[in-house]
Design a protein that fits this description.
- By secondary structure, this protein is α+β, with helices and mostly antiparallel strands.
- The protein has a domain of about 100 residues: Glutaredoxin (3-Layer(aba) Sandwich).
- About 45% of the residues lie in helices and about 15% in strands.
- It has a four-stranded mixed β-sheet with strand order 2-1-5-6. A two-stranded antiparallel sheet has the order 3-4.
- Strand 5 and strand 6 form a beta hairpin.
- Helix 1 packs across helix 7 and helix 4 runs parallel beside helix 6.
- The longest helix has 20 residues.
- It is globular, with a radius of gyration of 18 Å.
- The relative contact order is 0.20.
C-alpha cells in the first residue's frame, strides 16, 4: 500500500520514557518500511514542558525524585525500572551523572528554532544530541551556554539561536493539547493516538491501522 503517514510525537527531554519511546518508534518505522516500502513517513516532534513550575536554573535531581517518590528505596526501584527498560531498547542511560533537574523551556525553544533553520535530518541529529546530553552525559539542559554549544556541534549557528532562548523560567508554550494523556504520545495521521513507551509492535499496528483508514477515506463512495 502506498501513501503518506504523518506521526506527531509529544515529548519532554527529561522524561526517560520519551527517549525509550523514540527507540521503539524508530524500530516500528523500520518494520513499516520493510512491509510497506512505498509509504512516505513524516515525523514531527512537539515539545511539552512537564515541569513548567521549575525555576530557570532548575533544581537538584536527587532532591526532586526523593520528594516525588518519598524514599531512597522507591527512587532506587524506579531508576532500576528505567535502566532495565532503556537497556532493552539499546539506550545506555546513566542516571548517576545527572546533577540537575533542568527547566526545559529553552531546550524546547532551541529545537523549535532549529526546525525553522534546518532540515529534518539536522533536527533529528539535534534531538538525539539533546537526549544524550541529559541521559548519558549529565549536561544541564537549562543552561543557555550548554544548549548553544550543542546546537553548534550539530551544525547550527548559535548566533541565530541565542535570541530565542529566554533564560527566565517562563513556561514553554507548545502544543500541550496533544499530550493531554501524558508523554510520550504518538499521533498517527491525526486519527489514532498511542500514549506511553509502547512496544514497537504496538506502534506498528497503529501505523498500519491509520494507513488503512486513510486509504478507505480516499476510496470513492
Amino acid at each position: 500500500m502506498s501513501g503518506r503517514l504523518r506521526i506527531d510525537v509529544f515529548f519532554d527531554f527529561i522524561c526517560p520514557w520519551c527517549l525509550i519511546g523514540k527507540r521503539q518508534l524508530e524500530r516500528a518505522q523500520d518494520l513499516l518500511r520493510l512491509q510497506q516500502p512505498d509509504v512516505e513517513i513524516t515525523t514531527v516532534w512537539h515539545g511539552v514542558q512537564l515541569l513548567p513550575q521549575l525555576p530557570a536554573l532548575g533544581g537538584v535531581f536527587a532532591d526532586f525524585y526523593l520528594k516525588r517518590l518519598g524514599s531512597p528505596e522507591a527512587v532506587a526501584m524506579r531508576q532500576a525500572q528505567v535502566q532495565q527498560a532503556a537497556m532493552a531498547v539499546g539506550v545506555p542511560i546513566d542516571l548517576s551523572r545527572i546533577a540537575r533537574m533542568p527547566n526545559t523551556a529553552d531546550a524546547h525553544r532551541l529545537l523549535e528554532r532549529a526546525s525553522v533553520l534546518g532540515n529534518s535530518a539536522q533536527c533529528d541529529v539535534l534531538l538525539e544530541r539533546l537526549f544524550a546530553a541529559y541521559f548519558q552525559l549529565g549536561e544541564d539542559l537549562g543552561c543557555q551556554e550548554t544548549l548553544l554549544a550543542i546546537a553548534q556541534s550539530c551544525g547550527f549557528d548559535p548566533d541565530a539561536m541565542v535570541s530565542f532562548l529566554q533564560g527566565d523560567g517562563d513556561p514553554y508554550v507548545g502544543n500541550e493539547a496533544g499530550a493531554s494523556s501524558g508523554v510520550p504520545s504518538f499521533q498517527f495521521d491525526h486519527r489514532l493516538t498511542v500514549v506511553g513507551a509502547q512496544p514497537a509492535e504496538a506502534l506498528l499496528a497503529a501505523m498500519c491501522e491509520a494507513l488503512l483508514e486513510s486509504h478507505r477515506g480516499r476510496q470513492p463512495a
